[in-house]
Amino acid sequence: MRRKIATLAASLVAVLAIGTVLVARHEFQRAAPPPAPIPTVPVVAGVVSSQDVPIYLRGVGTVIAYNTVLVRSQIQGQITKIAFTEGQTVHAGDLLAQIDPRPYQAQVDQVTATRDRDQAQLANAQANLGRYTELGAKGWATPQLVETQTAQVAQLQSAIKADDALIEAANVQLGYTSLTSPINGVTGVRQIDVGNIIHPTDPNGLVVVTQIEPISVIFTLPETDLPQIQQQQMANGSLRVLAYSQDGTLKLDEGKLTLVDNEILQTTGSVRLKAEFPNAAHRLWPGELINVWLLLDTRHNGLTIPASAVQRGQNGSFSYVITPANTVQVRPITVSQISQGQALIDAGLTANEQIVVDGQYKLQAGSHVTILHGKAAEEAAAQNAQQIPIP
User: Fold this and answer.
1) Residue 357: inside a domain, yes or no?
2) Which of 156, 175, 194 is the last residue of a domain?
3) HSE (side-chain half, CA atoms, 13 Å) at 247
4) How far is it, in rounded angstroms, from Cα 317 to Cα 333?
5) What Rg value do the Cα atoms of the chain yield, rounded?
6) What are phi and psi of 191, to 5 degrees?
7) pLDDT averages per 10-residue partition of the chain, 391 residues
8) Strand pairing partners for 40?
9) Is residue 292 part of a domain?
10) Residue 81 included in any domain
11) pTM to 2 decimals?
């Protein structure tokens, strides 16, 4: 009887304990707050596009003048006129300066007078020769007299030839009194002023004239790029070359490749190339350091995304791809090149996929996102740019 009573009491205690636990659990569930919703990250989205993409090889080049001439005087004299202003565009044959021509004009006049005198003497000698020849035919003049007069005529003819040569030389010297530009170009700093004596031995001359239209650029590329360049030259002939400012934002001119150097620079493992640009706008200036883009090929139907969509991690480049459920995936990608704000993708993405262009710094794999549009997207991009630390 006592055993039954003990068993019944134990069962009653167990039932009461279970009931107490159930009641307490119910009360806890009623008091606990509901689970927080999963936060979403506002992002700016873009689309993987398919288009023809130019493939460039990039190098750094130096602008070289097509022709540079130091204008010197070939004679000595006083500068009486400066006919150009510094920085002026001049053409071949334009007068730059005038040297006092009077001494050289006097030399021309002197040798001209000598020639005129010899010509008069020649005319008289030829007349005498004609008379002596007639007299000799009649036996009234000796053969010696005729021969002597013939020799005198020949002597005077030679003197006149010498006089003509002297006149030509004097005129050449007179022509040197006008200093002209030998090429089309732009003048530099004037090295001498009016009233000074200029000499052929002056080291600085009068002025430097630099031809800048067209103009050349010498740049270097790694020697590993040489086989591709040679292959494209054989297939397409001349290759296009683009000149950009040092920061790569301003296109200066477009030209063509004219030379691949005949040797590799062993010290740097690079090859020198030369391009020619028309430079009609004079944006390229001798001595300027620029970025050079050599158009190697054009990839048809290449996949491109905004450069801001390319992220870099420990395992390489990746992008956040937006799924139909508005979550993001971390997708490893292979980038071929980044040019003018667009990245060319070799692998990892397909056309028309949505990718995150801005707002990545809050994302991780599986994050829920809200796609911003219009003005909201612009404001978010500006705010993210301020929050992202500068490396």
Assistant:
1) yes
2) 175
3) 2
4) 6
5) 46
6) -100, -5
7) 57 58 56 59 88 89 94 95 95 96 96 95 92 84 87 94 96 96 95 94 94 94 92 88 91 94 90 95 94 90 89 88 89 86 88 88 84 63 42 30
8) 368
9) yes
10) no
11) 0.67
How many Cα atoms sit within 13 Å of 368 on the Cβ side? 5
- CATH number, domain with residue 274: 2.40.30.170
Give the domain CATH number at 107.
1.10.287
Length in residues, the chain: 391
Q: Measured between alpha carbons, how far is residue 329 from residues 181, 246, 347, 372 in Å?
A: 68, 37, 16, 18
DSSP 87: T
Domain count, the chain: 4
Range of the domain at 23: 1-32
Q: What are the distances in angstroms from CA 360 to CA 268, 351, 388? A: 39, 21, 10
CB 189 within 8 A of CB 209: no
Distant-in-sequence, close-in-space partners of 115: CB < 8 Å, separation ≥ 6: 160, 163, 164, 166, 167
Residue 192 belongs to a domain: no
- Measuring CA to CA, which residue among 344, 376, 339 is closest to residue 359? 376
d(C-alpha 313, C-alpha 330), whole Å? 11
Q: Provide the token pair at 369.
A: 């996102």
Rounded Cα distance, 216 and 277, in Å: 6
Evaluate whether 40 touches 369 at the Cβ level (below 8 Å): yes
d(CA 44, CA 377): 6
DSSP 282-309: ----TT-EEEEEEEEEEEEEEEEEEGGG
Q: Which of 78, 98, 95, 104 is closest to 182 using CA atoms?
A: 95
288 and 325: one domain? no
269 and 336 in a single domain? The answer is no
The sign of the dihedral angle between the CA atoms of 143, 149, 152, 154 is: negative
Single out the residue in 300, 328, 353 at which a domain terminates: 300
- Residue 215's Cβ-side half-sphere holds a number of Cα atoms within 13 Å equal to 26
User: Alpha helix locations (H) across 91-217?
Assistant: 102-137, 143-175
* Residue 289 and residue 217 in one domain: yes
Rounded Cα distance, 158 and 166, in Å: 12
CATH value at residue 323: 2.40.420.20
